[in-house]
Every structure is written in structure tokens, then in C-alpha cells.
């Protein structure tokens, strides 16, 4: 019995060692070039960058997670139930009630419905309850230096992270986020923070980590800057009037791209809306594998705008569905916007 306990303890120690590699990132083959970039292009000192890189840790679970995101490993019928559940709707109503003034002001100033903002925060972090437990510097350094498929992107985010912490006068070793380095209530990447986050509370610090008011304003600003059309629909249901094999060969079918093919042109292909929509409206046609089989939707500009937050059409649909459920629950509760 005692031997079994010791064996189990050794296994746990080994697992912990494999999860975290205390390698000094200043010795990584790509480090010298990165340090020089930060010094020459962004005005940091080599000592500053080297000090932070020396404290960053390679995290194998981050590399494992990014290789299998839910949006790529699940179907719509598996993905939707993760987010569209009673508790997340109830929590959304509570969040809306707790942040009523900020949401109303954001809707007025940016034209983005409160329910969409609430749903984004609900999908991303369950209203701030799960903002991530990884140190951002560990996540971004691991991916910038040890994830070749997207290393340039994460290297750029690491650059932006160092700059934003300098701009906001905070320690780069301080903040936590997701395994991909996304931060706060709305899970902004560092570049998004620098380009779109706003100090909506007016206290001098754009705090998307602990201040829901700043998170609300930042998400609304992000959506407005990415083309949200106030008062316009997001998606409409559709159906196929030709054999699926004849439709799926269309170069734009089931692709997340700027809406360019009109409803009239999709009708010629064999995709027809089930709701009234102007024939000249540009839309994207999406196919989902739902609980009742394949289902089809036409996404408008606002659907595309949601995918600027996360490029998966399933993500955008989950946000939209959750927003509808939260709005309906608010109405049922008798609360006013």
C-alpha cells in the first residue's frame, strides 16, 4: 500500500514536470532576434526583455490545447450545448441586471445591442467566472517560440503585450488569461486590447480583467469598428432547393468571408432563405450539422462581424443563440432594458 502511494506520488511529480518546462527563454534560438526587435523598434532595453523572458515558462498543456480547439473538433450539435444551457442564460440575466447602466450606455454610443455584448462575455468567460489561469507571458512566449504553425502571429501578440503593459504601467508578469493569451471578461488578445479596448469607466486604467464596465465598452467598440450594423439582422434560416452535392461546390459556400454573394445569386446556386430578405443583400451561406441533421443559414454583415471575434461560424451562431435566449429571459422576468 505504501509503495503504491509512493509510486502514485512520483507519477504526479513527473506529470507536473512535463507540464512546465523551466527553460530560460533568453537561450532560445529565436530570442536574440526578438530582443533586438524590441530594443530597436519599440524602445525597450535588452535587460528588460531578457529579464521577462527568463521568467517565462514553456507550458506543454498550452501546446496541446491549441492543437485541438473545440471549434475544429466538434460538430454544431456537440458545440452548441456547451454554451446554450439554462445556467448560462440565468447568469446572463444577472450580469445584465448588475451592469444595466454600462450596457445601456454602450448600446447607445456604439449601436451594439446589450444582449450581444452580454452573450460574448457569456460565451468567452461565463461572465467573468473563467477568464483563464495561465500567465499571459507564459502563454504568448510558449506559442511565439515553440508553436511554429502560428509563431509569427503569437510573436506579434507578445510584442503588443509588452507594449500594452508599458502603456498601462503594469508588470508583464502580472496578468493571467487563456492558453492563447486572451485576457479579461471579453478575452481580448493584446493587439485587440491596444486597438479597441476603452476606459469606459473613466478611471484612467482600461481594466478588462476586473472592471466589467471597461469590458462592456471595449467589446462594443470592437464590434462597431468591425462593421456592426445597428438594427440590422444577424442571420436568417435557409434551405437547399438543389442537391447538396451541387451546392457545396460553390467556392464561397460554408466559408467565413466578407459577405459578397447576394441572396439572389445564392438562390441561383440553390440556397434559398426561409425568411424575407432583400434579394440584393450580400450574405454568406453556412451549413451546420445539428441535432436534427444538416441545417442551413444565411449570415449577414453582423454575423460576419461576430466572426471577427472568433472566426468559427459555430462560435458566431452560439453567441447569437445565447443572445436571443438571454433577451427572452430578461423580457420574461419583467426587467426593462
CATH topology of the domain at 16-68 and 132-196: Helicase, Ruva Protein, domain 3
CATH superfamily of the domain at 16-68 and 132-196: Bacterial muramidase
Mean pLDDT: 92
Any guess at the CATH architecture of the domain at 16-68 and 132-196?
A: Orthogonal Bundle
The amount of helix comes to 40-55%
Q: How do the helices and strands follow one another from N- to C-terminus?
A: HEHHEHHHHHHEHHEHHEHEHEEEHH
Number of strands: 9
- The helix tally amounts to 17
Q: What spatial order of strands do you see in the largest sheet?
A: 6-8-9-5-7
Straight-line N-to-C gap: 62 Å
Class from helix and strand fractions? alpha+beta
* Most strands sheet: 5 strands, antiparallel
CATH class of the domain at 16-68 and 132-196: Mainly Alpha
Spans of at least 5 consecutive residues with low confidence = 1-19
Strand content: 5-15%
CA-based shape: globular
Radius of gyration: 22 Å
Note down, in words, how this protein is organized:
A hairpin with a 2-residue loop joins strand 8 and strand 9. The chain contains 17 helices and 9 strands. Helix 7 packs across helix 9 and helix 7 crosses helix 17. Among the domains are: 118 residues, Bacterial muramidase (Helicase, Ruva Protein, domain 3); 65 residues, no CATH class. The strands form 3 sheets. Strands 6-8-9-5-7 form a 5-stranded antiparallel beta sheet. The longest helix is centred in the last third of the chain and has 21 residues. By secondary structure, it is an alpha+beta fold. The N terminus is likely disordered. It is globular, with a radius of gyration of 22 Å.
Amino acid at each position: 500500500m505504501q509503495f503504491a502511494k509512493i509510486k502514485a506520488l512520483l507519477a504526479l511529480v513527473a506529470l507536473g514536470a512535463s507540464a512546465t518546462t523551466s527553460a530560460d527563454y533568453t537561450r532560445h534560438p529565436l530570442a536574440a532576434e526578438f530582443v533586438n526587435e524590441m530594443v530597436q523598434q519599440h524602445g525597450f532595453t535588452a535587460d528588460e526583455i531578457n529579464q521577462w523572458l527568463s521568467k517565462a515558462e514553456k507550458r506543454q498543456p498550452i501546446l496541446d490545447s491549441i492543437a485541438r480547439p473545440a471549434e475544429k473538433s466538434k460538430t454544431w450539435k456537440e458545440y452548441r450545448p456547451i454554451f446554450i444551457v439554462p445556467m448560462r442564460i440565468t447568469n446572463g440575466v444577472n450580469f445584465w441586471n448588475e451592469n444595466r447602466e454600462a450596457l445601456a450606455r454602450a448600446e447607445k454610443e456604439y449601436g451594439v445591442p446589450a444582449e450581444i455584448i452580454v452573450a460574448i462575455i457569456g460565451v468567452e468567460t461565463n461572465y467573468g467566472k473563467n477568464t483563464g489561469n495561465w500567465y499571459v507571458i507564459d502563454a504568448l512566449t510558449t506559442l511565439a517560440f515553440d508553436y511554429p504553425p502560428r509563431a509569427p502571429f503569437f510573436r506579434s501578440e507578445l510584442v503588443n503585450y509588452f507594449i500594452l503593459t508599458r502603456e498601462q504601467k503594469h508588470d508583464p508578469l502580472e496578468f493571467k488569461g487563456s492558453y492563447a493569451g486572451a485576457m479579461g471578461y471579453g478575452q481580448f488578445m493584446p493587439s485587440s486590447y491596444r486597438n479597441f479596448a476603452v476606459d469606459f469607466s473613466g478611471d484612467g486604467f482600461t481594466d478588462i480583467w476586473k472592471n466589467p464596465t471597461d469590458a462592456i465598452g471595449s467589446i462594443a467598440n470592437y464590434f462597431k469598428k468591425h462593421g456592426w450594423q445597428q438594427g440590422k439582422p444577424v442571420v436568417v434560416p435557409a434551405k437547399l432547393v438543389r442537391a447538396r452535392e451541387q451546392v457545396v461546390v460553390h467556392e464561397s459556400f460554408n466559408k467565413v468571408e466578407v459577405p459578397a454573394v447576394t441572396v439572389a445569386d445564392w438562390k441561383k446556386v440553390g440556397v434559398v432563405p426561409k425568411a424575407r430578405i432583400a434579394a440584393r443583400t450580400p450574405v454568406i451561406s453556412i451549413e451546420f450539422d445539428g441535432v436534427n441533421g444538416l441545417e442551413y443559414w444565411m449570415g449577414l454583415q453582423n454575423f460576419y462581424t461576430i466572426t471577427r471575434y472568433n472566426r468559427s461560424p459555430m462560435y458566431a451562431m452560439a453567441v447569437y443563440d445565447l443572445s436571443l435566449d438571454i433577451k427572452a429571459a430578461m423580457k420574461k422576468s419583467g426587467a426593462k432594458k
